[in-house]
Amino acid sequence: MRSIYKTPDELRMMLPAGELTAEALDAVGEAIRPGISTLELDAIAERTIREGGGEPNFQLVEGYSHTVCASVNDAIVHGIPDAAPLAAGDVVSIDCGAQLHGWNGDSARTWIVPGEPDREDAQAWLAEARRVSDATRASMWAGIAAVASARHLNEIGTAIEHETESHEGPLGILENYTGHGIGRSMHEEPTVFNYRVRRRGPVVKPGLAICIEPMLTGGGAETVTDDDEWTVRSADGSLAAHWEHTVIRHRDGIWVTTAADGGAEGLARFGVVPVPPGE
User: What is the pLDDT of residue 278?
Assistant: First the structure.
């Protein structure tokens, strides 16, 4: 059985793939506006990855032909890009990954399309969209911060759920969809739960490379899957968000490979200073 832990050299070799993944999401974020389609955003992400010498790793998943998953409003995860134009106020979660030199990065961000929604409850809609996305992002960073001090993997899920519970209003944590290990493949062991579990899980120690990706709804945790057999939606129609980063634990600390600053801004609140892996 292959070890879930990487060598110091392998961790360093993962950095370029993470950086390229971040560049692709940066390009997507710059392009998001009313009228653009998620299919156009998909093309932007693919072009960025290929121009950077990489390959979209989502296209290596059997049965999937796109570079990103694009989930809009009540869609939580695994949404398929299409030609429908986005509207002001739409909540758009883009999940993207790049493979470069045989190593992988994986990350997701949620945006609210700029502008005033064309609906009577526009301000309430925007407030709810921000609430759900901000809570999801904060929960992700709480989980990442836990990697710096956790002894076992279940402490990460505990940190994520604890942070989620600290936010006002209903929030549903998806339980059938989790984070994962990453390296030569985009999806590897171990499973990284986004909620408290009894079993302690693997030891968190240098060599661990994982993706932490809470997915929250503004209501219940129950989901339904579209007829396309990919798109997962909130069963109650509540808005949803998805945030994800690739994080490595090495001998000197932690580093977020899919954040331009290694995670410094997001981790500051928790008193954790990311350190790039040394030679």
Answer: 81
